[in-house]
């Protein structure tokens, strides 16, 4: 270049992953696989905008955990004039102004506001708030039970941290119904997730297990025992996968539980069962209240429906409670059996009230979410992703000489019509160079149109080196 | 619900489209179709983060038009403490602070800054800046010619306006090479675009035309005539699709061109040709400089490569110049022949220098971009999208009675293994209700497992009403 330019050397942005083409191909295979299974169970796709109105998010409340509001990205139009205004302590704040935290050491009493009468927008941090808002907004146009899947990026505006994504994909399914939702769907979730996770390319040898429970069992027990700080107790029970049983027991003593009650609670929470028979046999509590009975019945039903899955694919694990008070019945987690401390790769459960803040309807649902990007990255780092070429092409048609250009194009078009992905070489270079291109792009077959009239087409298998006569209308891989 | 809640009624956000499930299915068909054709020509997929560092965008400069920087969305972490700081007129601005426009009528000399030492992030407003940044950043790991497609959302932070999207999809292909890029790829672009647009579901009856030119022809002519304000002249030529020829002529007089020159320019710009022969015959300029000759040769080559397409699919139209100085050779636009004023639905061209601001390499490229969301919405509004059910299921397996639950599940699983999408009904309701569900979800077949031992499975075609015996292992649609 004649003119010397100042060069800005681009760097990766922490928390925003980006893949090379060959890794992206594996990622596409994963998405295709997940979509195929979701659709094979009759779930329809929806996609919501990347943003929600901040008011809508705030109306939904903290289902996503107490600190989520701190982790949102809000949007501002760059250089939009007069987006901000200082309101002095003696002034009135106009409508539609939002308070922005600011440091002003000279006039700490002055407040900064974002101006404007448009709703403030934030990138969604999960797909639950968007689903709730969508279901309420389109309520009259949806068919219930509403079975939808959603595979989109979500954003968390966290401070940069190694191994933490700030932009990542989630793959969610949920079933929403009006007033009541059959347990049928609670049982469908683990079957779908098992089918997906056990056959994702690169996951075949991973030992995973879906662990399920029903919150009503533990909550019913705690209520029956007259325990009042239920949230606190369940928070400790939830740690039984990472903490020793005795350590949890002493924490429970610390918050005032009696030894007897701790024994009762822990012996329930430590139950694991593969069948409803095992589950019922394992529960020694004789004095079951209605909530607890209901939980046991529901979990038994779900287990009964999953008997067609391989041994150990799904187990009832009564220590699973999920941190969030959002869930009201069945709960799911999914772990690597050889690395349980990695945490759950796919979680969810049943909730009683999806969208009560958006619509005056009672909408119970059940859903589960695959933490796609985190899982994909783990398998990528373990070098287990399927190896594929850079190009999606099956065949490279070479250009023997400039005069054969039309023949090359026609040959490629015939092969494309038959379903193959085909690249054509861009110039009449030496054959060796054209073969090298196929090699570098990982294209498995190279097609030679006839160099002279009367000759046959030939095709070369790049892996074996075998070359044979072939017809574009008839050849198969 | 026992507790009265305050209800926030969600509203659509202007410029952020969202579809019902049945429309989303058509959108998926469009994406699948476009991806299939892109891959059938050997283009690989990449996906870049939704954001770029603002510094990277600014380094790339105004390829996207002069005002693009005003239309960006920048991200801010909500409630991140001390994100903003007022710097008073006697104070020094710390490093990494960005000036934010603010209104403060009491102290107009005080400036507001965004604090922090992280790069400021903005949602990408096209896929060209991300491609340039990606190619530079991963240069050593890519195989050239680098043929990539990209189908992502882009964002423009415009003020809300009817019919204008602020979040929308673009589907781009580009081929990038080092130092030189064969014309082969200039000819490949219109062939791919024709294949896509002529067979998108719902577009079959639209009369579209790809119009191509080569900027070197007009630029060469203008240089040869000794005209200096070339950018201004091409801007008027670009309007020949909307303005009368005489109106353009008087504008050209207005900027100081002679009548002779205007005649010469307009008679060139008004040339339309389907073949290279027609093109060459149409150009009466005898005194062609090297640039002009090169342009004619290149355009002729491209036209020659496209003779396999239907008549009128592609024409050379020498008035096409594209507004942007970014393009240096072949340029493309695509129009509805019965609605030319709608503007181009798919545009692009060849550029000499993709990423000179990011890397000290000469990277020429050629690319084209389908304005997906705008086109999809047009076909949607015209009611031309393929009609499909809400559910992707082919079959609903009904539940004759609670005892048949395992049979229903096993039947569904057999059909799924054979490639069908299958819903199972969630409860042993009246058959009429189960059929009504299939009807409402648009599921074309209803499967009846045997109600009693010894009976056969049956399947009902919901469109014709025909019902017949069938086996889950053998039935085909």
Summed up:
2 copies of one chain form a homodimer. Chain A has 477 residues and is of the alpha+beta class. Chain A has 13 helices and 21 strands.
Describe this structure in words.
The structure is a homodimer of 477-residue chains. Chain A has 477 residues and is of the alpha+beta class. Among the domains of chain A are: 76-119, no CATH class; 395-469, Anticodon-binding domain (Rossmann fold, 3-Layer(aba) Sandwich), CATH 3.40.50.800. In chain A, 31% of the residues lie in helices and 21% in strands. Chain A has 13 helices and 21 strands. Chain A has helices at residues 21-40, 54-60, 128-137, 184-197, 215-224, 230-237, 245-254, 259-269, 276-282, 290-305, 372-381, 405-417, 431-441, and strands spanning 44-45, 51-53, 73-77, 84-87, 98-100, 102-103, 111-114, 121-123, 146-155, 167-176, 208-214, 272-273, 314-317, 327-336, 346-351, 365-370, 395-397, 422-424, 445-448, 458-461, 467-469. Chain A has a nine-stranded mixed β-sheet. In chain A, strands 18-17-19-20-21 form a five-stranded mixed β-sheet, with helices on one face. In chain A, a hairpin with a 5-residue loop joins β20 and β21. In chain A, α4 crosses α10 (290-305), α5 (215-224) packs antiparallel against α10 (290-305) and α9 (276-282) packs antiparallel against α10 (290-305). Chain A is globular, with a radius of gyration of 29 Å. In chain A, 42% of the residues are buried. The interface between A and B is large, with 122 and 122 residues. β4 of chain A pairs parallel with β6 (102-103) of chain B, so a sheet runs across the interface.
